[in-house]
Amino acid sequence: MEVRVTEAMSEELLRPFAEEEIHSALQQMHPLKLPGPHSFTKKQWNIIGYSVSACVLNILNTCSLNQLLNYTHIVLIPKCSNPENMTQFRPISLCNVIYKLVSKVLANRVKPLLDSLISTSQSAFIPNRLITDNVLVAYEINHFLSHKRHGQTGYASLKLDISKGGGESKTHWVAWQKLCRCKKEGGLGFRRLKDLNKALLAKQAWRVITNPNGILYQIFKYKYFPHSNFFTATDSHSPSYTWRSLMRTRELLAAGIRWSFGNGESISVVGVPCLPRPATFQVIFPPSSIPGTTKVAVLLDEGGWKESLVRKEFRPIDSECILSIPIPSERRQDELIWHSGRQGQFSVRSAYSLSCSLDP
Fold first, then answer.
1. Number of Cβ within a 10 Å radius of residue 97
2. H or E element that contains 244
């Protein structure tokens, strides 16, 4: 039987709780949520924070909970203007803040280990996992089995199809392109289905390339790009429909992604979008004395950029742009960001807008 809880994990789970964990849990709570009985807000921490910490630490370290702390206010919120019976109310529970702190501290203690403790087949309720991952994994398994009809080892699968009915399609007498225009331009604001489908597929592809430890990335890399990456993968023999669909989003993703500097070990000096300069986000004049595959890490030291080396190798228009990029003091891994979205986060809306602009 595989050992999932190592000695280091066990020591981390069993170590005594500290006051810093309680204060961190309180800061994670929403400041505008209604408090329950005997509760307080973040602003009162400097007044009663010591007493609250002592109470919570006593509960966590001794495993004893006063029954009074388990009291909860039940509030009924009307669903309509003039409710007449109980079914027209929505109940909510206002728990004690100390009760919430205990549960949140326990959740924070276990949260970093959930990915190691819970099987990869469980895709829901775990960060960076979605229930739709199981659908894609099942499709890849079925695709594999459909091509393994010969050999000494036999395989079998059970495939269940759930049919759904479709409605009738009405005939319209207006061009679809006009219907897809925004209302200000005389259209009805309908989404262009081709671009919307591409944006939705790009969301799945984005999850794959930004989560290299996920099960989907590992499966696709093993099958389709074991010695390259998602953007340089070539067409393999008999690829699955899922992979062919994701491959069609590469142009859209390439137009919307940009690298954020960390340690510079994943970013090449030439040919990689990493500069804050639309629309290519790349250097204009590649250096002649540095190979294009050289990583940006050679241009960095402990204090940041090697200014003299950057000015020597790049033209002024490129060197000034490079030196204007701040380098984090704590060197992290380079990461992909979605420059078309807010705060570098991918969204279907921004991907749809970008897809429409690429194919007006």
1. 23
2. helix 241-247
Mean pLDDT is lowest, of 165-179, 180-194, 216-230, for 165-179
What totals of helices (H) and strands (E) does the chain contain, helices first?
Answer: 14, 6
Burial class (CB in 10 A: 0-12, 13-18, 19+), 317: exposed
Evaluate whether 270 touches 292 at the Cβ level (below 8 Å): yes
Q: How far apart are CA 73 and CA 178, in angstroms?
A: 54
Q: Does the pLDDT of residue 192 top 90, yes or no? A: no
Question: How much is the average pLDDT of 104-116?
Answer: 85
Q: Are 350 and 338 in contact (CB under 8 A)?
A: yes
pLDDT of residue 165: 41
89 strand-pairing partners: 78
User: 10 Å Cβ neighbour count for 47?
Assistant: 10
Instruction: Give the DSSP H/E element, type plus range, for residue 136.
Output: helix 132-146
List 305's β-bridge partners, or say none.
300
Query: How far, in Å, CA of 151 to CA of 154, rounded?
Result: 7
Rounded-to-integer distance, Cα 268 and Cα 93, Å: 53
In sequence order, what DSSP letters do the residues of 162-193 get, joined into one string?
Answer: -----PPPPP-SS-HHHHTS-GGGTS-----H
- Tell me what the mean pLDDT of segment 262-284 comes to: 82
Tell me the C-alpha distance between 41 and 202, whole Å.
41
Query: Residue 64 in 3-state DSSP?
Result: coil
φ/ψ (deg, to 5) at 309: -70, -40
- Pairwise CA distance, residues 161 & 62, whole Å: 52
The token pair at 238 is 């008999």
Q: What is the pTM of this model?
A: 0.56
DSSP label at residue 76: E
Q: Which two tokens stand for residue 216?
A: 């989907």
Q: Where are the beta strands (DSSP E) in the chain?
A: 73-78, 89-94, 257-260, 300-301, 304-305, 335-338
Task: Name 336's bridge partners.
Answer: 259
Determine the Cα–Cα distance for residues 106 and 113; give it in Å rounded to an integer: 12
Q: Indicate the DSSP class of residue 262.
A: S
Cβ atoms within 10 Å, residue 19: 14
